[in-house]
Write a structure and sequence with these properties.
By secondary structure, this protein is mainly α. It is built from four helices and no strands.
């Protein structure tokens, strides 16, 4: 791997948005059925809206993270 590529990957790893995505990737498999259902319902509405869809912006992620932190 080139030095430039390593520097780019290290910079990406420090970006706050990447930390948010990494957190989502880790907690998503631990979601309970109610949380999955809420995300699915939210996503179905979000996909049909005029706002660009981004599942990482689901407001429920914070509640899932809080639940799993305890």
């Amino acid at each position: 791997m080139t030095k430039q590529r390593v520097e780019i990957e290290e910079e990406m790893a420090r970006h706050p948005y990447m930390l948010h995505i990494e957190r989502i990737v880790r907690i998503a498999p631990l979601m309970n059925e109610a949380e999955r259902s809420a995300l699915t319902e939210w996503a179905e509405d979000a996909v049909e809206s005029i706002v660009p869809f981004d599942a990482s912006s689901w407001p429920g992620w914070y509640a899932v993270a809080r639940r799993l932190a305890h």
